[in-house]
Amino acid sequence: MNQLIASLNSPIYTGLVNAKYILLFAALTLSACSSHQVKTTAYVQLEQETSEIPEAQLLDVGVVLLEPNLEQLDEDEDALVFAEVRKAESHFMALHLSEAIQASSAWGAVRVIPNNESMIDVVLEGKILHSEGESLKLEINVSDISGRHWYNKEYQAVASRYAYKRETSREADPFQTIYNQIANDLLNFRRQYSGQQLSQLRTIGELRFAQNFSPESFSGFLQQDKKGIYQISRLPADADPMLQRVRSIRDRDHLFVDTLQDYYGAFVEEIDGPYKDWRKQTYREVIALRNIKRQSRNETIAGIVAVLGGIAAQTSGNRATRASGAVAMGAGGYLLKEGFGKRAEAKLQEETLRELGDSLEASIAPQVIELEDRTVTLSGTVEQQYQQWRKILRELYQVEVGQVEVGNGAS
Question: Domain range spanning residue 90?
Fold first, then answer.
């Protein structure tokens, strides 16, 4: 018995016990730092308008290409974001959002538009705050043609791990719940308007388009209040020749924007396969990257605590404590090595993500649209083509009202 007691009081045994408590403290410290809360989003069903809406009250909706928001990235997110992918997403998400809004059966034409210069009844602008395979966060801003702001709201969803299974991924987008929620909010806000107010918005849209092309002819029909909201002061005669010409020009503009829908649809169809594969891969990589970084952080913290505890023990005068300090420093050094090794592995994961992004870049090169029903050729990006088209429309309008001779306008 005395021999057993003596062995328990030996410096080596005491040092091992103290080392154990130092490492236990380190483990408790890192466990407090490693908690991770996973957010989940329940699926949101798309609401649909069941009552018939008179044509005069059907508002057209323009979904502006979403802002990629590449300038506002934090350091961690920067490793997961690639400029060309974000630009593709701005098209991809805008089209899916327009389809959800159209499916609610409460609107006129719902179109994706390059910018907010189209004089459409309701304009929806958005910004991609965060996007990778696991989670998506958007900021949406809505206003109408009268200048009245509807609302600004952020939407966020986390994709289920089942969303990328082959049998389910074909049916719906992993983040369809966000598109449905935006469409539902838009519908619910529209329901606050009376039939008369909806009809007035459509009239304001027509008059603002007319003012944009001929300010001198339509300047007296609208006025703005102190808040900048447009109000109808008087109406032109329905048979007014100038109004008829404006309506003809506006119809052509709508036809061109409809042509853009074919382009956006073809664009999204082209990148659909590579983008879904990229997002499926990033879903796995993001989770792996987060786990590795968390392990690296925990093991590094544990190693630092153990090493500091060992250093403190080594400076004490007690031989047993110094022995325990040596053991703790050795264990701490091992944990630090493991932590730094995990960081190196995380870098490899980040490189994998970049390679995935680079592989998608080849599928999203800009395309040139040629209009089949006109003798003009539009080149460049969609945004550049639309600017050229608006210029051509002005020239056509001037020709029709006799301000310039035929032949000096578009070819």
Answer: 55-236
